[in-house]
Amino acid sequence: MKNKYIIVLLTIALSLTGCEGYLDRTPLDKNSDATNWTSESSLETFSWKLYNTFDGYGSGWSRGQYLSNGLTDDYCPDGYSYPTQNIPSSSSAWSDPYSWIRRANILLDRVDQIPDLSDEEANHWRGVARFFRGKEHFNLVRTYGDVVWIDTEVNIDDTVTLSRARDPRVDVMKNVCADLQFAAENCKYTTDNTVNNMCADALLARAALYEGAWQKYHENNTENAIYFYTIAKNAANDIINSGHYSIHTDYLSNYISKDLTGNTEMILYKVYCYTGEGAKVTCAHAMQGWCNSSSKTWGLTKSAVESFANSNGLPIYMGTYSDATIQDVFENRDERLSEIASPTILCPVGWAYEEGINSSTGYWTDKFVDWSDYGTITWSAPYNTTDAPIFSYSEVLENYAEACAELEDLGEGSMSQADLDKSVNIVREKHGNLPPLKYEGAGSVSVNGTVITKDPKNTVGVSNLLWELRRERRSELMCDGFRHDDLMRWKMGSFIDFSKNPECYEGASKSAITAYYNATKDNDLYKDKKYSDIENGNFWNGDGEYMSAFNLEENNRVFDEVKNYLEPIPSGQITLNPNLKQNPGW
Predict the structure, then answer these.
(1) Which residues pair with 285 in a beta bridge?
(2) Which of 85-89, 270-274, 294-298 holds the top average pLDDT?
(3) Which run of H or of E encompasses 254?
(4) Which spans in 116-221 are helix H?
């Protein structure tokens, strides 16, 4: 049976402010803030709404965290995307986290009102509250940098708090880590798909890794970078040492299962369900629909496809690779590539596949399509019901390896073969069917006796070890919603700039598309199509050799290194609180 806990659409009427005199008295005939907090179940019920902060695959037609960020070099969306151009007057990216933070602080404050609650139970719920408080502050820091840290229930008449200046991001992130460390130490371990100590460690590893990279690559602050990388490494290691999770060989089952209960890689996941044709949708999504409908799908880029290793475990620049046909592209490669995109079908605009399926780059990204669902009511959007990973063990292992390598690079100890063997080598073997990486000393790594050399695309100067771990991370988490954040924290915004990295918007080669056309043109599916339909329906790069998602002068995406790593503070917020100073460049 599916766990009920991730999707709970409840609202609880809680009075959050008081009045003087008679109005302060507890009502005798209705619930109030004073009467609601009577047992541990009150805390549990109030916490349910906080689970809505997990996007997963989205809800209805919204897209959630997966395959949803156009500002990446992994895939091209169905429409042109570019960094923020103008300062908005308001933004949910600012207001929503603070609303959730207030709710988390209310939960934290009300723990002490519950009678007969043991210290262990009380600290568990304090941990849950601090988990969500830390999570939402982390979201704010990723988006805006310096933000106001809020650790109390703030009412509308609290002019002191509401007029505060932003706190330095490093201080906020230290508070975030403190919250998550408390949650990791005090939340119970559970198997009912609710926030527990392992979820806290997973988020702690993610958040600390992010800030460690920011402090290293943006702030050039070695001390702070070591501080956060160490936290990330230890948090990931706690999960590894727990023995609760393991990597299995069925990579796709993590993304196309209607029930992730019992999946050994899932630390937390979002449950979706549909109660039957003609009945009420409890909570469903459109992820599958975005991938297999006549709307243009988000195709993998040339950059993404070529980032996957050859089957011998070495990157393609160290071996033979051809993109002359789709068979050449997918043959003898990391097995994850064939599970993320179709290895047999090209579907450029004008040469649509069955049911009109067409792709922005020619490559069909079908990682999220459950083919066993074909023909059922849940096959079509927005009634898709596959469960969405929130925290997965594979991400934890990738985080652990990166933290180890970064600490070595900063002179804080050295990485070891054991570090690789208990992290990325497991993922490579189980998901990619690749041979393991061998540690060759500081900054160096090999596969089966061949030392990996510098990638010509490594223009940012990191070690070959770090670059290979980044490539491995990209392969494992392709389309999972991490790549944009990774590029931002590594200070690699130029990789989504069209003029600096054309491969971030290019797709399949013209030769591969031509070969596919010649091989399939007599099929009933394509018999009414002409090659000119492909040429007329798509853009091509400057040399006319690769399908190009947005090869128009007016669609030339530019990344501004001064301002585009952070979003602008909404102007309306600065009007309300002049002590909020705008981000650089805006």
Answers:
(1) 384
(2) 85-89
(3) helix 253-256
(4) 119-144, 159-162, 169-186, 197-217
